[in-house]
């Protein structure tokens, strides 16, 4: 017997999506809170080198990268609600371990080990919470709203990260490392309670294909995402050093304009993905991102760099949801969580590689060289997307 799905208004759709995307917000606020605090804690209070301080931050990214594909497969098998609750639990453990690290500073090695363990749990919590929440949103509003779900997920992510760093600094000034760690723990408990009270969605029945087959279906879209992420990673990592090298003020404002461009584009144009398709929107987005990076390269004043940062943020904004929509289309519903996890892992990998690769380029060719290099990588992403688009159009034409 066929069932009919009631037509929901935009406001109703958004409310349903936000009711689960809040777990992404909790997760990435937990990620953002320690970013500006932990390096100083490791270096100044525990007495370790700056390299070790950087490695402590990177431990989380590695844990996210490794666990991201598994989070999707678990969501397919057991449902996104259980995966979100597991993710919230891991974030809570991270907060507890960080508080313990703050209590054991008299034994620096033990404190550092507790911090590292907490970063691992936070990385796993990030991948499980965000992937589970995205898939949960897709389940409760339907596959036709995939772009809307992923877009809201991105808004929640970057809003939380933007709020997290200054909040973490403020809490650290008031209460030390225990301040932000306690907030992470409290948010995780609240997230667990909220998730436990929400009805679970049914797990899709059907054959689940092998991991390597899912990879073979989505890798090209993930590669496009990864290449496009290089522009974002370059700005996030090196814009402050670039301003300093030119003896300019206002690097923080450039980062803010990047975020403003990102959020405005997500809120204003995410519907174009459903209207025109993910691949053409991605190609246009890469073109704008590339133009922004080239503008930064050629800028002879700080305000032109600001404009370039805004254009880069606006260009990168729709890349994740646009290519993500196309990636999950490549598999049947029972494998969409795995596809989403694998696809997202390319972003984690790109962010992890951007820093060291760009750093090597700076050492060899100077600070300004990173902007045209990043633009070339984004151009490669655009060409890859155009090839995928042409291949898709040819397949549709051939099947008619």
Automatic annotation (TrEMBL):
Keyword hit for Secreted: no
Keywords assigned: Cell inner membrane, Cell membrane, Membrane, Transmembrane, Transmembrane helix, Transport
A single cellular component GO annotation: plasma membrane
Subcellular location(s) per record: Cell inner membrane; Cell membrane
CDD domains: MFS_YfcJ_like
Transmembrane segments: 20-40, 46-63, 83-103, 109-128, 149-171, 177-197, 218-244, 250-269, 276-297, 303-325, 337-358, 370-389
Membrane-related topology note: Multi-pass membrane protein
Pfam families: MFS_1 (PF07690)
Main location: membrane
Parts forming coiled coils: none
Chain ranges of the Major facilitator superfamily (MFS) profile domain: 16-393
Gene Ontology molecular function: any one: transmembrane transporter activity
Entry similarity comment: Belongs to the major facilitator superfamily. YhhS family.
Protein name: Uncharacterized MFS-type transporter COO59_02145
Organism, as annotated: Mixta theicola
